[in-house]
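Postdoc handover notes: sequence design on the structure in folder B. Input tokens:
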């Protein structure tokens, strides 16, 4: 009976997850202990209670190797996987902004940045920033908000030159984007342009090339994109499907870890005497992402090594190599699960943010990153500072690392609003 009362109390704890951390830790510790119960119903109750507490307790769970009971350790491993996946899926949901009435463009941009957590900045003159925006719906996803501002101010999206940040600026109305952007959750896509070319050995047909761009919210880290041409539905204004130029093609593109969009080229054969005037599109992209970014701080320099767990990854600071000319900091990342995403696209690790904070000064590595160890789920890295303070042991090492690698499907569709095509120039070069 006592056990049942405690489980009930833990479930009620869901509504007060923002309570003091010691109280949270005590509740979690008691449920972890209950995982070793000799009674199956009590073990199942503890699993249910821990999962209902949600991803917020991930950092309160103990390392698996500290649990002596095999049954409890196995249950805890599954609980962690469940909560990590829930956290990852939450992060894939589009972020939202709530705009009140009577906003200026400048106020709207500040709210967009602060409420969605997306790293954005803007290069817009003060006169434009003081203009009122057309509000419409008050709660919008990040890309819906950007699209609304784009419709009024003709925004240009670009990448910051030195950091991972989306920069918004005003375009030239005389050279504005031809096609309005469309949104799909945490992604935005746009028809960039259409071109046509003659095709050798196809006297009655021409190549109809569709260029699309796809943006991801800047807070997310897309790694890789895969698309099968056979799974794309592209139709003209009469509902006739367009004939793919290479129907069996599979497109695989690295996202590049930048804010810049990935660009897709879709080629079709269409009659020369009747090119499409409208396009209806339905397609799905398979995107690999690194999600659940966590901040790790190291400051125990007197220890030979220091390990910190964040959700599904353990980050270990290995013994340092400090000389008058350089400070080499080795890190070891150990993920509880590896798999194809980890094995195929390790390049994401080169874009993790690391810095040394010393008082008001923040230093970043000034030498190339070295990859020292590779295995399924494990990476060894060495960061080097050629310039560092003499009292560096008073500094804090800050490291941002994704806690989970995951696949997601991104749906691009015109739905009931087909793309109305605009006049285009035809290059003379034939396609072989």
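Designed sequence:
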């Amino acid at each position: 009976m006592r056990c049942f009362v405690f489980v009930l109390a833990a479930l009620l704890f869901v509504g007060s997850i923002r309570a003091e951390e010691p109280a949270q830790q005590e509740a979690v510790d008691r449920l972890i202990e209950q995982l070793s119960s000799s009674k199956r119903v009590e073990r199942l109750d503890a699993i249910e209670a821990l999962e209902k507490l949600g991803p917020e307790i991930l950092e309160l769970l103990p390392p698996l190797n500290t649990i002596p009971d095999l049954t409890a350790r196995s249950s805890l491993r599954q609980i962690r996987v469940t909560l990590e996946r829930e956290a990852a899926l939450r992060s894939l949901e589009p972020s939202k902004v709530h705009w009140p009435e009577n906003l200026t463009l400048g106020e709207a941009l500040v709210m967009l940045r602060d409420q969605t957590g997306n790293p954005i900045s803007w290069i817009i003159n003060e006169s434009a920033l003081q203009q009122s925006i057309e509000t419409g719906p008050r709660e919008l996803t990040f890309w819906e908000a950007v699209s609304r501002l784009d419709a009024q101010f003709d925004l240009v999206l670009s990448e910051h030159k030195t950091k991972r940040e989306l920069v918004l600026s005003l375009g030239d109305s005389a050279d504005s984007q031809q096609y309005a952007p469309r949104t799909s959750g945490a992604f935005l896509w746009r028809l960039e342009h259409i071109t046509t070319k003659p095709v050798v050995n196809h006297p009655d047909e021409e190549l109809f090339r569709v260029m699309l761009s796809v943006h991801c919210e800047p807070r997310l880290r897309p790694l890789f994109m895969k698309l099968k041409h056979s799974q794309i539905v592209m139709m003209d204004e009469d509902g006739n499907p367009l004939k793919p130029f290479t129907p069996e093609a599979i497109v695989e593109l690295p996202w590049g870890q930048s804010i810049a969009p990935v660009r897709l080229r879709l080629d079709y054969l269409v009659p020369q005497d009747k090119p499409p005037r409208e396009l209806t599109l339905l397609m799905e992209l398979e995107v690999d992402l690194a999600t659940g970014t966590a901040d790790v701080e190291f400051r125990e320099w007197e220890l030979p090594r220091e390990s910190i767990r964040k959700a599904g990854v353990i980050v270990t600071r290995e013994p340092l190599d400090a000389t008058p000319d350089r400070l080499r900091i080795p890190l070891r990342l150990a993920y509880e699960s590896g798999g194809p995403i980890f094995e195929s696209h390790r390049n994401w690790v080169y874009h993790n943010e690391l810095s040394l904070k010393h008082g008001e000064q923040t230093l970043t590595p000034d030498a190339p990153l070295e990859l020292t160890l590779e295995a399924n789920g494990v990476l060894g890295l060495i960061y080097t500072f050629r310039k560092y303070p003499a009292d560096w042991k008073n500094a804090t090492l800050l490291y941002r690392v994704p806690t989970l690698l995951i696949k997601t499907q991104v749906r691009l569709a015109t739905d009931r609003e087909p793309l109305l095509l605009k006049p285009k120039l035809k290059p003379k070069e034939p396609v072989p």
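Context for whoever picks this up: Residues 64 and 77 are 7 Å apart (CA to CA). Don't rerun without checking with the PI first.
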